Amino acid sequence: MSSLPYHEPDIITLLTQSSFLLLLNIIDYLLNHALYCGLLGQVLLGIAFGAPGGNLLSYQAQEIIVQLGYIGLILLVYEGGLSVPLTSLKANIGLSIGVAVTGIVVPIGLSFVLQPLLDASPLQAFAAGAALCSTSLGTTFTVLSTSGLTNTRLGSVLSTAAMMDDVVGLVMVQVISNFGSSSNMVDPVTVVRPIVVSLGFAIVVPLLCRYVVRPVRRALHGKTFAYKVRAIFAYRRARFVLHSIFLFGLVAAASYSGTSVLFAAYLSGAIVNWWDSEPAMAPTTSGAVSEPVVGNITGGNAVGGRAEGMAGKDVATSGIPVSSADAGIDLNGLSGMSTYQSYLSQPVARLLRPFFFASIGFSIPISDLFQGAVLWRGVVYTLLMIVGKLVCGTWLVRLLRLSGTSISGTPLFTRFRRRLAMKLLRRKSPEEKETPRPQEKSESAAQSRGSPTPIEGVESESEPNQPSTPHEAPVSLYPGAILGCAMVSRGEIGFLISSVAESQGIWRKRGTEASGQSTESSSDIFVIVTWAILLCTFIGPIAVGLIVRRLKRLKRAAEPGRRNVLGSWGVD
User: Fold this and answer.
1) 67, 73, 144, 205: least CB-packed within 10 angstroms?
2) Which residues contact 111 (CB under 8 A, 6 or more apart)?
3) How does it sit in the membrane (predicted)?
């Protein structure tokens, strides 16, 4: 067939698909207004309109929605990279690693409770833990954007930790797939390759930006060629094409290399964000020295138009190469985030993102979940998996006392780092033990008041000096609670790993196979894991939405000048 015959769709198809689109946006608005978790309604609509429910959409339409939804997920993760505060990302990378490792190790360890619960083999328990160790990136970034926490330190830690869990989850897909092979031998290449490639992207790409791209950019400053290139990309539509080519080029490279395309999307957004954050240079004239321009030029143009405020006639006709700042190019209007907001924000929010969460609903076997034999086991396992992710929030919990020493207001990660630094300091200068410096006195006084100690490289909120009181400030559990609850949601990666394990026969295998036949308990494990993924995907966003609504109510009722409820975790 050389072409596709054009036929007018029947009215039933038109009404079904149009109502599906309208309901996706309506329920998203209503639930976001109430609980900041409109994505849950979209998942439920996917169940109702898809194969698990009424099957109102054709199989071909559901396949297309899955494909478009995954493009929406890529763009959603790309937006997360664009919006992440880079200074906070670098300052909290160690904390993010600790949160990610906790969110991986604890669920896998707790999953071995399936051995006595269902007489499962260690391989089946490990596969179940692998499916539950991931964190849904789409849910994470959606919750952050709807709650307004994307540009905060808390959002930076959460998004980075969720990204690490996602990369590990996709490595687990390769491991589980290899476990189900006929040889029953794990190929080291399939395990090592995604890890090495992911580390290569995470290490090599930032190093190239710092030690290759930045020097070349500075070397080309003031050159005629560089000015002509900047003039070409002084249009927002040209920036959009350039950013799109860079995004999907890096995504394609990551896919063919064997690592996560979502990780590549996040990394590409962070690189564009870094490029925009680099200080623009002042105009270069003969005998003058280039210096960074403080701030950005304002006065952006409409969508797709050229930035307003071009330089005067004398500058334009002088023939002297000038920078974008000198030419009057609106740096804010041409940034990656501004370009994304102009061209992609509305299609992603109204079409692609709802398609993604609806596609999750397509993959939920709702008819197999309500079996009395596995229902209560699924609830028990869900509770364990919720606890397995909630413990991630303990990295931000501030304790009152530990070993008899007051450490009010100090997060766990900061306390461990400070203790290590103090031990090294005492080894170098033991004579300083007797006479503490005034800076240490002020620090200890601040701790006695309960003010959080900022992590190095990130500014915290300033507050006036107040005399110490005999009562310590209350310990805030909100940052840790938000972090732990946001990590609870599993979503797409969990369903992917579980489906791979089912298709490869992991769930049907037993530790002892004397009869050579599969038993019912193997399918029970699949149903229990599906229960845990489904309930965690629902409970996590609801819990975060309730906490955020509580925080907004406290913020409205707070006195003017009162400290932010989230403390230093709620600032940029």
Assistant:
1) 67
2) 125, 126, 128, 129, 132, 381, 384, 385
3) Multi-pass membrane protein
Give me the mean pLDDT over the 407-418 stretch.
54
Q: Residue ranges per domain, the chain?
A: 11-392+480-509+520-557+564-570
Contact at 8 Å (CB) between 533 and 132? yes
What is the fold of 11-392+480-509+520-557+564-570?
A: Na+/H+ antiporter like fold (1.20.1530)
Query: Torsions phi, psi of 174, nearest 5?
Result: -65, -40
Distance between CA atoms of residues 274 and 113, nearest Å: 45
- 467 pLDDT above the threshold of 70: no
How far is 179 from 190, CA to CA, in rounded Å? 11
The C-alpha atoms of residue 61 and residue 12 are separated, in whole angstroms, by 14
Taking the C-alpha atoms of residue 349 and residue 344, their distance in angstroms, rounded to an integer, is 8
Which sign does the torsion angle of CA 74, 69, 248, 190 carry? positive
Percentage of residues of the chain with pLDDT beyond 70: 69
8 Å CB contact between 147 and 545? yes
Tell me the whole-structure pTM to 2 decimals: 0.72
> Rounded to the nearest 5 degrees, what angle is found at the Cα of 509, between the Cα atoms of 535 and 182?
120
Report the DSSP beta bridge partners of residue 292.
Answer: 281
* Cα gap 80→269, rounded to integer Å: 7
The full DSSP string for 381-438 is: HHHHHHHHHHGGGGGGPBPSEETTEE-TT-BHHHHHHHHHHHHHHHHH-GGGGTS--H
